[in-house]
Amino acid sequence: MYKIEFKDFFTYSFSLDCVIFGFQNGKIHVLLIKRAMEPFKNKWAIPGDLVYPDEDLAAAANRILVELTNLSMVDLHQAETFGNPNRHPQGRVITSAYMALIRIADFKATPASWAEEVKWQAIDELQELAFDHNAIIQSTYELLKKKMRTEPICFDLLPERFTLNELQCLYEFVYTTTFDKANFRKKLKHIPLIKQTEKQANVKHRPAKLFSFDSQLFQSLITQSEYQFKL
Amino acid sequence: MYKIEFKDFFTYSFSLDCVIFGFQNGKIHVLLIKRAMEPFKNKWAIPGDLVYPDEDLAAAANRILVELTNLSMVDLHQAETFGNPNRHPQGRVITSAYMALIRIADFKATPASWAEEVKWQAIDELQELAFDHNAIIQSTYELLKKKMRTEPICFDLLPERFTLNELQCLYEFVYTTTFDKANFRKKLKHIPLIKQTEKQANVKHRPAKLFSFDSQLFQSLITQSEYQFKL
DNA sequence: GCAAAAGTGTTTGGATTACACCCATGC
DNA sequence: GCATGGGTGTAATCCAAACACTTTTGC
What we know:
The structure is a homodimer. Chain A is of the alpha+beta class. The first copy, chain A, has two domains: 6-150, Alpha-Beta Complex (Nucleoside Triphosphate Pyrophosphohydrolase); 154-224, Winged helix-like DNA-binding domain superfamily/Winged helix DNA-binding domain (Arc Repressor Mutant, subunit A, Orthogonal Bundle), CATH 1.10.10.10. Chain A contains six helices and nine strands; from the N terminus they run E-E-E-E-H-E-E-E-H-H-H-H-E-E-H. The A-B interface holds A 1-4, 8-14, 50-57, 78, 80-81, 83-85, 91-92, 94, 96, 113-114 and B 1-4, 8-14, 50-57, 78, 80-81, 83-85, 91-92, 94, 96, 113-114.
């Protein structure tokens, strides 16, 4: 019935690749590691590795990220799966991308295992990476852009307390456009933000008020009404 | 470095499962097959099978669908990937869902290979299926619902020529709500539709005008302006 | 004429846009 | 005072919801 024997279907491998986004200096960045191992030794890549045969995908994504970069407690979500038969030089390896958005300043990524170095690279300044990792990042970034319109994931990228201008700059970078300040703030009227008492410090202009996202209120809004986040 | 030998990572298998949606009798339906093969022999399932080790994913999804149901030339798109270690009783099989939307009347699904029967089942009347196929359908249906808001995929489900009421009924079923007829049609003002000269026939009330989707105009709209489909 | 569904117009209130203006801080 | 960004108000316009109304067909 099959063109090959049933047992010969069990000759794949399966990996996960973690696309970790952060926001700094006005740009979305991606976490990269330098491979200390063949194939693509000394090339930059996104952190990823093979999944153990008895391991669940979500758990494996977390393990792999910890092992290579010491980033733990990161909220990973599945993105696209890549299965070109030639994408891995050592055999048939299908890979699923997992994505996370983190506050760069709140985490300390350090190289471990076969990761020799770790760095944050601006999404618009990526060099050529190992495997098909450029395509993986591209596809996952498209997903990020889509999600940012309808889900409050922007707050995972900004510091816990942020200014409204920082929020606007993030959206302007992602959508490569500019917004009218007054109108952008009117849209924020519908979004549950907590105004902090403190203000920005050490700026040579009027200090901005700081805000934080009210995720509790957000949760009750979406469960109790047909509230829809939109920006 | 690894807890197992490198070669022991090549003990997985990988499958694809096709979630084919259609629309009839006012309801979204899913194409199911009856398995003539262990495991889950005689159980209903979505069409799916193992991917050959040298086969590309998109091509494999099409091949599998043809082999089991004789449906060819179907436009399949990747959805979620499922990798619970215990989801398949015969080994570690990771699977990616592929989804398609078709006009039921334009295709003739017939069982082949180890598919014993084929049927269209209403999405809200699904029985218990083989493997984790209920979860796969659920997740893929959520994706369909999301996509229908911003992409003109509804026209893949409706007949080539449809009435505006049929379109409205489709959206009302998917969003489990009702719309005001006049207001729904105002929203359609922005969507490139071609008014046909013929009308509905054999109805015992005023016959409705028939429309078709102008995909050419749609293509030029999205490339030339920043047009966004929305319904 | 009547039932049934097709098809359209009007009003109203809320959101979006463009744009102008004032405010607080460092130097 | 002035440069720099923070922060807000207004008017015009567009859009969406609610609702009422007219039209065309079969019987």
